[in-house]
Amino acid sequence: MAEAAIAQPEQTQQSQGERQPYSRPVFRQNLNVNSLQAQRVMERSFDRVSNALFSLDVILRIIGDQKEIDQVEEIIHGHIDKVSEDMTKAMDQLQKVMTDNGIEAVPGYSAPVNYPIEITSPQVAQFAHLIRNLDKLMSLVDTLWLNSILSSQQRSDATYEWQQRLIKLAGRIIGMEKRARISAHTKGKDKEVAEAAPEQETTDPELSSEADADLESESGSKAKSKAAGKKAKAEEKASDATA
User: Fold this and answer.
1) Domain count of the chain?
2) Does the pLDDT at position 54 exceed 70?
3) What's the pLDDT at 85?
4) E strands along the chain, which residues?
5) Taking the CB of residue 81, how many other CB atoms lie within 10 A of it?
6) Which of 16, 144, 165, 230 has the fewest CB atoms in 10 Å of its CB?
């Protein structure tokens, strides 16, 4: 009797030495963002943070043990949870001001943007949720400003402050990825890491300086490399004041 041929999955028929792409679970969603500040955070940091979180997971599995992986995940959760808690408190306070002043309606926005996103880890989902909440918070601030409860200066300060909270968080996550790559290099694993999780350039100057500052802070350095992002900060704050 002739032996039956066993069909090989198409994706495994690769030339010798070619790495099998890592097939990871992904939710594909659309994130609708109304406010200027949330749009800035989305455009400047979301893709880079998503890549950093994926790379962190890959790098740590190459160079570390499960205990170390769990510790890093716990640190990231702690950073995200802190921003989320503070944001929830701020929204509750603004909602109370609205209620005390009999305000119920919130404004629409003239130029909302719909972003297709990929959720590839629980941390990416949490960061996307932070951006949604930032958008809601900015809507509350704008509501109180349009009703003359907040001055233009108060509005500008509040919107800029919260935009920067998320930018700093993004920079901290990217800084953690950079530390993991340095650790891989010292352990002689940099080639394996480069193949499994190629490094993505951080093109935003302020985001890059935040990541570098976090890296320096972790290593005990007192220096803060903030100069690259100062111009962008000043321009954005001036734009907020006139928006």
Assistant:
1) 1
2) yes
3) 98
4) 27-33, 113-119
5) 11
6) 16
